[in-house]
Every structure is written in structure tokens, then in C-alpha cells.
Amino acid sequence: MGRMFKDKISRMIGMIEIFIGTVTFLVCTAVQFFKISNMTAKPTGVFVFVAISAIIALVLGGGILCERKWAKKYLMYFSGYVIMLKVMAYMGVISMKGPIFVVFPLWIKDIISIVYHLAVIYFLSGITFTKS
Q1: Closest Cα to residue 16, out of 102, 111, 120?
Q2: What is the DSSP letter of 76?
Q3: Who's near 55: CB < 8 A, 6+ residues apart?
């Protein structure tokens, strides 16, 4: 992969992570505390888990945009973690008592998430950041 392509991919990944983190946090908070729409609040543990994951995605996205080595390392780890959670949920090993909100059917959302996070791991493993 050429340097220009790698730069575009890393910027796109950073922006996607910031978008996912921001939207997830804002919507989850609105559902949990302001009871928007017909969505129901979830158990506190589920909300806290999703909110923390959203904040992590937001911070890592910013780190990727700034080309920080730590952000690359932790986003690759976080992506693997998300994939493992999805797989374990489908195997029945863990249960989150339902998603906070669903725009698409859950299985479509999960497939998109797994494919995206596999792509993040693949592309970031081929990119070198110079800033610590």
C-alpha cells in the first residue's frame, strides 16, 4: 500500500471511530436519562459498558487522527475485543440483555461490526505511526 493510501485509510478509521463513539454515547445517554422516543432504558451495567466503550472509541479515533502509536496499538486491541464479544454473544457465553438501540436488525449490525473491526486490524497492522 502506498503512503497516501495508508494516510487516507488511517484518517477514515479515525473519523469513523470518533463518529461511532460520539453517536453511541449521545444516543445511549439520551435513551437512558431522557427517555427519548419509544426506546426503553437498559440496565445500568449495560449502559455503563456501552458508554465506556463509546468514550474509548472516541479517544482512540482522535489518537488515530493524530497518528499516535498508542492509539494504533489500543484500537487494534479494542477491535479484537469487540470481535470476541460479538462471537461470544452468539455462542451464548455472554449476554448483554439486548442492545441500547437498534437501527438495523441485530445480526446485520453485528456482521457490519465484525467486518469493520477485522478491516481496522488489517489496515492498521500495515501502517506505521511515528508519534508516541
Answers
A1: 120
A2: H
A3: 21, 25
How far is the C-alpha of 60 from the C-alpha of 62, rounded, in Å?
5
Tell me the per-residue pLDDT of 75-88, one tens digit each, with 9 for 90 and over. 999 999 999 988 99
- Pull the grid cell for residue 64: 488515530
Contact 13, 22 (CB under 8 A): no
Strand partners, 131: 68
Per-residue model confidence (pLDDT) at position 59:
97
| Distinct helix (H) and strand (E) counts, the chain | 4, 0
Residue found by looking up cell 493524530 in the block:
66
Dihedral sign for Cα 116, 119, 123, 124, please: positive
Asked if 80 and 124 touch (Cβ cutoff 8 Å), the reply is no
